[in-house]
Amino acid sequence: MMKSLVIDDSRLARNELKRLLKDFDTVQIIGEASNAMEALEKIENEKPDLIFLDIQMPGKDGFQLLEELDYVPEVIFTTAYDEYAIKAFEFNALDYLLKPVQKDRLAGALSKISEKQERESAVSGERMTSSDQVFVKDGDKCWFVQLSEVRLFEVEGNYTKLYFGDQKPMIPRTLNYLETRLDPKKFFRANRQQIINLNWIERIEPWFSGSIKIYMKGGHEVDVSRRQTQRFKDLMSF
What we know:
Order of helices and strands: EHEHEHEHEHEEEEEHEEEEEH
Oligomer: single chain
Radius of gyration: 19 Å
């Protein structure tokens, strides 16, 4: 069952969506939020599997909320406007539902999640260690690379870019998925966009508001969010 959060500034819209979702036993509503600030706190604390997200809200909109997240759940946008569709899919959204939400469209969106979970569970297993080798294919080029040589994983649209040697191929996997497969003692989710190989860190410097900046061997500079900075310190301490 997917733990889900409904985010919309309209109480009526939230109630209507919750009413529709009662007919789907794969979804468990664990909370709701009426603005981005409230949603940010609940997402970080509750770690939902899925959020239903309105785009136009007072203060920060739905896109700005996603840009602030370290942990990014699956996203289904719900909005009264269709002009945001292309931008929504740039954020790797699973679907884009126009209000008033129709039950058949909602069912279709939820089935996409089930299909995606089935695909990922079919290839998932134990976490991979740095000594494991993976097959990477990008276009006509193929590599068989040891994970210890991959210094950085970075979001690129609906793909993830791997950096190793002087290569940077892209694979059709999300960072959330890769985070479940990689050894957390060797690979760290620095922010919404990047996972780093801890063995490739060259130096660390204090940054703004209690955060840090990590300089990687190979020239990458990685800004670690304030929340992830504390997790990084906990991970790296005795």
